[in-house]
């Protein structure tokens, strides 16, 4: 069923190529301060998506591509394409940045951010703010299309700013400018990260634009991915927070669609994943305290599927340093025979990642 649906995805370069299994495309969502080189490498080891997208490069008058984001592309060893995401609205500087990035042969292509919901971002008319200015998006898409070779320009958008009334007009612009692929996060900018995902809006996008559409928003498991693909007719799924929680999710989707047994990670596997994060997701100049705080950012999502009462989350948040933090991990994930227990496939109802990771403050410009 899915290969037929995927047939519109005819990439002109290798960068949008589907996996050999011809299952749906899977994409790791761009996440600021999360999807750096260390996290992409870890995800690659657990089962890489079809492609990656970086967190956004900021574009303005004095900007230069941030070295740490560029590193996540040029030093990437996962063997999968990595797209560079840009946030900005100034046409000359967006064109300049595209040219600078495309000098690096490792850059698969350029993705435009039309969704970041942080007020300090959208007030500058970038990210989700672009969804209030159709004429400017028309001009911006035209300029970026000209600046990017065929097959190397994608857009990630939400379904509107406050409501969806302009969504069809924005979709028409994707066709007008020959965007190569469109990712739709099925929430408005005002819907932030918790409002119900409007999968019908993604269905509308998949049915109306010429390019392939990737569905994004609350794809929590391989089972949910299958439902979302069936419901929306999208060519693939993009996954963010639930890939932090479950780094095997792309592998599981691949296995499900190719009819192979689906990997069931244990709590012991989760403990091993945490060690990889501990060794990779920090900057060299971070103090031990900051390193522990950074690891907690990831554990905040992992913890939503460790126990139904949320005890792991509660205890890990209180851990004063890295040693105490890892002891909490051992207690919940390894000791007392826990290592062999299966890791829940979906987050437990009512156990939520700490709001400050997902509120309006998520993006920093
Ligand atoms: C911590 C965090 C940082 C994010 N940073 C970005 C970003 O840099 N660019 C972007 O387009 N979206 C960003 N997003 C939004 C995600 O890419 C994605 O659209 C959203 O989380 C919904 O998908 P999910 O339900 O699979 O997490 C971020 C989300 C989170 C939670």
Q: What kind of oligomer do you see?
A: single chain
Structural class: alpha/beta
What would the average pLDDT be, to the nearest integer?
Answer: 92
- Per the CATH scheme, the topology name of the largest domain is TIM Barrel
The CATH superfamily label of the largest domain reads Aldolase class I
The tally of structural domains comes to 2
Distance between the termini: 42 Å
Which strand order spans the largest sheet, edge to edge or round the barrel? Answer: 1-2-3-4-5-6-7-8
**Largest beta sheet, briefly?**
8 strands, parallel, barrel
* CATH 2nd-level architecture of the largest domain: Alpha-Beta Barrel
Which stretches of 5+ consecutive residues score pLDDT under 50? Answer: 1-13, 356-361
What compounds sit in this structure?
Answer: flavin mononucleotide
Helix content: 40-55%
